[in-house]
UniProtKB/TrEMBL annotation:
InterPro entries from the UniProt entry: GT_PLOD, Nucleotide-diphossugar_trans
Organism, scientific name: Limnoglobus roseus
Protein name: PLOD1-3-like GT domain-containing protein
Domain of life from the UniProt record: Bacteria
Domain PLOD1-3-like GT stretches: 2-166
Amino acid sequence: MKILTVASDPNRANILIDGCRRFGVEPVVLGVGQPYPNNVIKLHYVREAIRGLDEPIVFLDAYDVEVVKDPKAMVIPNYVVFAAERYCYPDWNREADYPAPPFDTPYKFLNSGCYCGPSQLLSHLLDPLELQGHSDQGIITQAFFAHPGRIRLDYEQQYFHCRNGARILEVPDTFFVHYNGGSWSAPYAHVRS
């Protein structure tokens, strides 16, 4: 398994990087020292980094993700999984288009800040995409609707927990916490120990 992130300034990614290292995992930091015009650049870097690889991949946003459980214990599925969040962003008007989750959950919308899957399937997803605009989440959301079944959402928060809109004491058994949408607060791991 390879953990990838994109950070033009890795000093700002210390919570993620140190969290990975605490579990003996060295994340691959892409884009160090390079311009960061918008979030679409993350898809460019990942697409290039995984081309030709044959191994499980985990991608995590660099500046707002915390590692709360040993990533080496993850069983990466044989399909592509994106984090699920409580809000439909950036295309609020697509909320009704999302398929109903298999059970009642407020986490039913795609979040592109955390995802995992086999490198070949991720390449198959990313290679044909036109990576233009400003929103990586918008691009992946379009792919989600254009190719039903190619992307699954982590409704159970098995891998990724998106905090934006979550209740304070909501603590699922997950590997990574994503403080998306400005939901960053005191580090989360102490709540679980």
